[in-house]
Amino acid sequence: MIQKPRGTRDFLPDEMEARRSVEAKMREAARRFGYREVCTPAFEDLELFTLRSGEGITKEMYVFEDKGGRSLALRPEITAAVIRMYINEAKVAPKPLRWCYFADCFRYERPQKGRYRQFWQFGAELIGADSARADAEVIMLAAEALKATGVTWDLKVGHLGFMKNLLADLDPAAQHLVMAHLDKHDLDGLCITLADMGKDDIGGSLSALVDCRTLPEAFALAGTIPEKDRIEQMISILDEAGIRYTLNFGIARGLDYYTGMVFEGFAHNLGAENQILGGGAYRLAHLFGGDDVASAGFAIGFDRVMVSLGEVTPEKDTVVGIVCTDEGERFALSVARVFRSSGIRTEMDLMGRGLGAQLAHASKTADFAAVIGKREADAGQVTLKNLHSGEQKTLDPAAALAEVKAYGTR
Ligand code: HAM
Fold first, then answer.
1. Domain end: 309, 342, 374, which one?
2. Ligand 1 atom 21: the closest Cα is on which residue?
């Protein structure tokens, strides 16, 4: 028996309905903030991701050569693709662009609960706005989208400017190495790396920065950074909006494109894979042949949200099973058309079952049976049986439809 590939999942209808109901809440949050959905290809030129997405993510990519000899990769994330699309398709569109997406990503990681090789991200990118308000807007949208799902989580907000100030004397490669240790919370590795570089002195200030939770303390440790006013403004907008967060200047983010504000979210009830949100301000467009446009965005790990929520019971459709004899078939098909065109989920026997077997099947799969034998067909009526209460009435199709609709809104 062929099995699904490692790190992938099948979703049965109940699970898909649960997923769609949660997804709809996040989409609705994005709509209210003016973010419109975009879609990019599932695979891209490999170079799109090797240019700036960071070593961690490029090591985990599914890379392949197509029949034309092109090097391609399944997208490990959507941000780079969205910026490529902006340059290709929307460079001259009025700024800022507010775009969102819900799409699957592929990373060759060691699978475990909450970590998959195919997983879904709900994300947003704000392109062409370079301000405190822009930084705050993406954080507020992420918070709103997660709140709408019902998960309980903590938000951590930071800024790379502090760390960069402390590491200003190091060359970019060394800075990169240090940030990678910080991203993995690997303080021992960090000390060894700094000692190798003869920069032990920075170690103390860096670990103090990682532990620091207030802006004045961070400025005292790392020195005043050029973005001071912008950071303070952003924080005051978040405070004003009642967003709950802790400051964390140790957030380094695994992706290499971030330039300023960064933030992460952690679900309360998940184990090792509890990070459900990551984002920040970044610049990528110039690397892909566009202008150097400022952007900010985030992605929520949708599968982790679903794990955190546990059992989700979406609103159920009312289901009508049409139960008919051969003599009633023509009329039954017309009743099914009426029900379906009014939005009612209506199923009809396709197995050549007798009346009793059809009714038994309907009682397992439907809320109502609409029984149509010769007598009903001749009278243009339906015997509508509520399969939960057993109550039954013979009605004309319009009245039967009204009854089913009323049940759906009970
Ligand atoms: P990221 O932190 O790499 O950021 O991923 C965002 C979220 O995707 C993570 O917080 C996590 O919840 C989820 N995630 C990552 N890997 C897996 C996996 N293997 N299985 C399940 N969930 C996973 C980004 O991807 C950036 N593009 C975010 C961004 C958008 N920054 C600016 N704009």
1. 309
2. 115
